[in-house]
Amino acid sequence: MTTFLASLRIALRALMVNKMRSALTMLGIIIGVSAVIAMIAVGSGAKARIAEQIASMGSNLLIVLSGSSTSGGMRWGSGTVPTLTVDDAKAIVSEVPAVKYVAPNLSGVAQVVYGNQNWSTNVNGTTPEVLDIREWPVVSGRPFTQQDVEGATKVALLGKTVVENLFGGIDPIGQIIRIKKVPFTVVGVLGSKGQTTFGQDQDDTIFVPLTTAQKRLFGMQFPGMVRVIAVQAKEPELMREAEDQINALLRQRHRIQSGQDNDFTVRNLTELMATAQQSANVMSLLLGAIASISLVVGGIGIMNIMLVSVTERTREIGIRIAVGAKSKDILLQFLIESLVLSLIGGILGITIGIGGTYILSSFTQWPTLLSVNAIFLAFFFAGSVGVFFGFYPARKASLLDPIEALRYE
Amino acid sequence: MQPVIQVQDLVKVYKLGEVEVQALRGVSLSIDRGEFVAIMGASGSGKSTFMNILGFLDRPTGGLYLLEGIDGKDLSRDELAEIRNHKIGFVFQGFNLLKRTSALENVELPLVYSKKHASIRGEMARKALSQVGLGGREHHHPSQLSGGEQQRVAIARSLVNQPSILLADEPTGNLDSKTSVEIMAIFQRLNRELGITIVMITHEQDIASYAGRNILFKDGSVVDDRRNPSPASVSESRQAS
Fold it and tell me: B112 and A6 in contact by Cβ < 8 A?
């Protein structure tokens, strides 16, 4: 311990002698460590954001879209032709064993008015199961019920954004709003879900009973028409099976001959999100790897300066060996010197990395996540770089011939 | 009584490329405890090689060298370092002090490597500095000291671990004659009062005359080895200045 403290003092003094040089050498490590910390923060921020969005969307989610149409050689996108009905939704939940809930949906954009406030938002006519599928809590009031759907009552559930825009500070429960001039009673307010992966505000929405939407708001080209059916599978492993069974069932119900294209589309949203998650993983790995390279370059800087330092101090090393320093004493002295360089650089780098992360996220609005693990990892990595790149110069010093070293000018 | 240094047929051969240079060609001598020996010789006479071997900085090619009965032949690099640390004090021509390091810390250096505790180090180093008349200069750096004072710090460093022998390689080579005499006075006092064995290389006859025994090297062999019954002495008043 005494030796270690003495070596530490010697190292600190040697570094103080060449302040500018020590600072410049540290700069490599500082940049490396702060880059690692900032990049890991950006990467894990993106990952966390996506994980959050997956959770907010609901798990094991399949979306059935109504069909694409072809007219005069022009193909229109999914959902342009209404081909799905409420009965399709009922058939899916009763005949496909892998399915837990379905929620048929008929939606449109509508102007909503309360008092002298108005707001344009997405109005979804759907069934109560939608809240189960999307794991969406009602934070005040009540959800609408199956009776509301059967009776086509004029009740509405409002998303957070709609409440904020229409009501300000007033409690919306029990108030009357007008959707496309049709009066609706607000029965409940939904919890906040935030944005989707694609930047859409999920809270800017209103839920009304499907039947009410069909009869009062958006009309029907044929009885029971819906545009989208949201389906939740029972287990993540049953997603593929549910998808296949829904395909088969709807082909049969829509009387599609083999060889003909589907007039509907089944999308696995969870799979889509998993892909997004994967690409975020790859991105954060890449960012971390690039930042680590700068740390390694910083380490090479340390090795370079330590080699210069050993040469400059050959005579000092000779004196030390002559008065009884053993190889390991000299080795330790120079190793501690490079370790001190890299660890001070590491601490400064962590500070700058944390500061840089805050600045980065406040300027770019990127989600960032600073983890204690990443900080310790960067610090440990910086120390390892110091030892690894300091070892060769230190060993060179420890093996000097004392006679030669004392003669060195 | 066992001599401090015992040398028998010591041979050292350097290989300079193809050519072999015989630096020492069979040197035999012994030095007793408490002697003050001056080794003289022209450059290339082998006296520095001899000194390096005595100091366990170099190994002989052949022959025997015992320091207090210890043979360094089969010892490792680190074991030799330990012997240098405990039994040998070095004084060099160029002082060889650590720059930007106080006199006290320079003197403490051998104690750092013998793992002495910090408080003991300070105490021992202060004592050594006062023995060479530098009490009160503990915190001066080498650059703030005169050549003579720097050499005295180096002598204090060589003494601090109470070695068996003090090896001085041209200790007055970089000093003016007045300061040289002061250094010789210190050597004589250390030798007489503390009984420290001193082996000193010099090429100046008048510096050698302060020693009690003069050995002359020529072409790698001892050609003259005589006692000096009445070494030159320095008055105590001059020494104190």
Answer: yes
Reported as a pLDDT band with limits 50, 70 and 90, residue A76 is low
Which H, E and C letters describe chain A, residue by residue?
A: CHHHHHHHHHHHHHHHHCHHHHHHHHHHHHHHHHHHHHHHHHHHHHHHHHHHHHHHHCCCEEEEEECCCEECCEECCCCCCCCEEHHHHHHHHHHCCCEEEEEEEEEEEEEEEECCEEEEEEEEEECCHHHHHCCCCEEEECCCCHHHHHHCCCEEEECHHHHHHHHCCCCCCCCEEEECCEEEEEEEEECCCCECCCCCECCCEEEEEHHHHHHHHHCCCCCCEECEEEEEECCHHHHHHHHHHHHHHHHHHCCCCCCCCCCEEEEEHHHHHHHHHHHHHHHHHHHHHHHHHHHHHHHHHHHHHHHHHHHHCHHHHHHHHHCCCCHHHHHHHHHHHHHHHHHHHHHHHHHHHHHHHHHHHHHHCCCCCCCHHHHHHHHHHHHHHHHHHHHHHHHHHHCCCHHHHHHCC
Q: What distance in Å separates the CA atoms of residue B25 and residue A404, rounded to the nearest whole number?
A: 22
- How confident is the prediction for chain A on average, in pLDDT? 86
Nearest to A406 among B96, B112, B118 (CB): B96
**Residue B15, domain member (yes or no):** no
What is the distance between the alpha carbons of residues A302 and A292, in angstroms, rounded to a whole number?
A: 15
Q: Which of B58, B82, B109 sits opposite A403 (nearest CB)?
A: B58
Question: How far apart are alpha carbons A31 and B22 in whole angstroms?
Answer: 56
* Assigned domain for B53 exists: yes
Q: For the beta carbon of residue A406, count every other beta carbon within 10 angstroms.
A: 22
Give B84 to chain A, closest Cα distance, Å: 5
User: CA of B147 to nearest chain A CA: how many angstroms apart?
Assistant: 18
Cβ pair B81:A324 closer than 8 A: yes
Instruction: Find the CB nearest A322 among B84, B86, B100.
Output: B84
Nearest to B89 by CA among A218, A251, A349, A322: A322
A17 interaction partners in chain B (CB closer than 8 Å): 100
B101 touches chain A (CB under 8 A): yes
Instruction: Tell me whether residue B97 is in a domain.
Output: yes
Our count of domains for chain B comes to 1
| B165-169/B197-201 β-pairing | parallel
- The CATH number of residue B110's host domain is 3.40.50.300
Structural domain of residue B232, as residue ranges?
32-59+75-240
At position A13, the amino acid (one-letter code) is: R
Distance from the Cα of A387 to chain B's closest Cα (Å) equals 22
| C-alpha dist (Å) from residue A284 to A38, A45, A290, A349 | 11, 9, 10, 19
Q: What's phi and psi for A249, nearest 5 deg?
A: -60, -50
pLDDT at A78: 55
pLDDT tens figures, B86-145 = 999 999 999 999 988 899 999 999 999 998 888 899 999 999 999 999 988 899 999 999
Residue type, A77: G
From the list B57, B98, B99, which residue is nearest A402 (CB)? B57
Cβ contact B113–A327 (<8 Å): no
Residue A9 has pLDDT above 90, yes or no: no
State whether residue B121 sits within 8 Å of chain A by CB.
no
CB half-sphere exposure, B67, CA atoms < 13 A: 23
Section B172-196 average pLDDT: 93
- B8 within domain boundaries: no
Q: Which of A272-276, B31-35, B122-126, B229-233 has the lowest average pLDDT? A: A272-276
